[in-house]
Automatic annotation (TrEMBL):
This is Tripartite tricarboxylate transporter permease. The chain crosses the membrane at residues 12-34, 46-68, 110-132, 138-155, 167-184, 204-223, 260-281, 323-344, 356-376, 388-406, 413-445, 465-489. Keywords: Membrane, Transmembrane, Transmembrane helix. Residues 18-440 form the DUF112 domain. InterPro entries: DUF112_TM.
Length: 501
């Protein structure tokens, strides 16, 4: 059953891949530490470079996965030291992390968050090892109709669980679907939204899309805030960085519970680390906060979201590797990396490309240990990254973005298109939209259309095939419950309270 993991360690322990895991962990921690950069921007910038350097698929994936998990570690630094989340997954970390820093406990807070991240990620990696092959065996039974129902379920969970505003999340997903339809319709040959430009006949390239949407829009935001002093403030003194065993043991329940919650939420398509952090924090507050100390610098309030967001990051690999659908915005970008190598993620990946699936999972074990070893003694060094001025960051990101796109396409139109998409992403962010639903809609929309066409082709146009099997029917019911229950349950509770009163 675990032959793929043994083969995977054989791949991950080669000198090249060990070096890439270390490099990815280091870069990921730096990307995560810089407010606004985060894992998606980091992976979007490095992905075309890894491809054009000629790295094998498994090596590229090991590098990018290490960036992803490293960014989840690094995101805590600006949250704790500056009260500015490094990425969406670290938002809840600010609630107790920053008050701890104000109490002179910045060092122990960074140490505890590193240990919590390590334990949460370890729980999720073990879950990934155990459940991914089992889910892959179930996924073999999926046909086009079941995959179409799964996409509906993914869109439902995304609109309900991602972000504070479900309407904006849904609009973002629809925009992503519309962008994904640009180009020649493969079924009928009809041109869709090409504006008469032959360069758009093949659709909008994935790399151009993600670099424009994330990296260019981030550059524009940095330029807009170039006179802000948020990043130029003095860092609080760190003091001791190593957290005591007593402090860790006091948080053990919060860490383990949140790790399990984070893994389960991460497995759900379209959710991600930010949802896991919020759910774990509110759950822990309800269970443990007897003295109402959460939000004032409680170690458990810091440990819970840190354990959960790292567990969710790893958990989001489960649907990507087994079903071929992204569990989060970042894994949507990783999915694009596999497509660059003409690898189709899905249930057959464990048997047809075990070196990629096994190598990735084995590298997560190694990368997690590397990250703990880097983050405990070097927390003070990484913290200095927060003082890098924007006049250094902006040109560096811009050069990497332009070089990455031009190396892949050797075409100025791709550069212009990237800039247009960047301005579009900037406007969306200014209007309060999250970009993760847009990229998920772009990826999931194409897959949904393909599977709908195949299913209707098999049935001769009979739409009944979409809910004929038990699997697809169950997914349809789950999707409807996800949409209805959050609206229905508060009304039922209010009615019950009214009748009791």
């Amino acid at each position: 059953m675990f032959d793929f993991l043994i083969d995977g360690f054989g791949v991950a322990l080669t000198p090249l891949n060990l070096g890439l895991a270390l490099l990815g962990a280091l870069l990921g921690t730096l990307f995560g530490a810089l407010p606004g950069i985060g894992p998606i921007n980091g992976i979007a910038i490095l992905m075309p470079l890894a491809y054009t350097l000629g790295l094998p698929a498994e090596s590229s994936l090991i590098l990018l996965a290490a960036v992803y998990t490293g960014a989840e570690y690094g995101g805590r630094m600006s949250s704790i030291l500056l009260n500015v989340p490094g990425d969406a997954g670290a938002v809840m970390t600010t609630l107790d992390g920053y008050p701890l820093a104000q109490k002179g406990l910045a060092g122990p807070a960074l140490g505890l968050s590193a240990v919590s991240s390590f334990i949460g990620a370890t729980i999720a990696i073990i879950g990934l090892t155990l459940f991914a092959p089992l889910l892959a065996n179930v996924a073999v039974m999926f046909g086009p109709a079941e995959f179409f129902a799964l996409m509906i379920f993914a869109f439902s969970s995304m609109s309900v669980m991602m972000g504070k505003d479900p309407i904006k999340t849904a609009i973002g997903a629809v925009l992503g679907v519309l962008i994904g339809t640009v180009g020649i319709d493969s079924g009928s040959g009809v041109l869709r939204y090409t504006l008469g430009m032959p360069e758009l006949y093949d659709g909008i390239d994935f790399v151009v899309m993600i670099i424009g949407l994330f990296a260019i829009s981030e550059i524009l935001l940095m330029l807009e805030n170039s006179h802000s002093t948020d990043n130029d403030g003095e860092l609080p003194p760190l003091g001791r960085v190593f957290v005591s065993l007593k402090e860790v043991l006091a948080c053990k329940g919060a860490i383990i519970r949140s790790g399990l919650i984070g893994f389960i939420i991460g497995v759900l398509p379209g959710t991600g680390a930010s949802v896991a952090g919020a759910v774990s924090y509110t759950t822990e507050k309800r269970l443990s906060d007897k003295d109402n100390t959460f939000g004032t610098g409680d170690m458990r309030g810091l440990a819970a979201p840190e354990s959960a967001n790292n567990a969710a990051a790893v958990g989001s690999f489960v649907p990507m590797l087994t079903l071929g659908i992204p569990g989060s915005g970042t894994t949507a970008v990783l999915l694009g990396a596999l497509m660059l190598y003409n690898i189709t993620p899905g249930p057959m990946m464990f048997t047809e490309r075990p070196e990629v699936a096994g190598g990735l999972i084995a590298s997560l074990y190694i990368g997690n240990i590397v990250l703990l070893m880097l983050n405990l003694p070097l927390a003070g060094v990484f913290a200095r990254v927060l003082t890098i001025p924007r006049w250094v960051l902006v040109p560096a990101i811009a050069i990497l973005a332009f070089v990455g796109v031009y190396q892949l396409h050797s075409d100025l139109f791709a550069i212009y298109l990237m800039l247009v998409i960047g301005v579009f992403g900037y406007l969306l962010r200014k209007l309060g939209f999250s970009l993760a639903p847009v990229i998920l809609g772009y990826v999931l929309g194409g897959l949904m259309e393909q599977n709908l066409r195949r299913a209707l082709s098999i049935s001769g146009g009979d739409v009944g095939i979409l809910w004929q099997s038990g699997i697809s029917l169950g997914l349809w019911v789950a999707a409807v419950l996800l949409l209805v229950l959050p609206w229905l349950i508060p009304k039922l509770l209010a009615a019950r309270k009214l009748s009791a009163g």
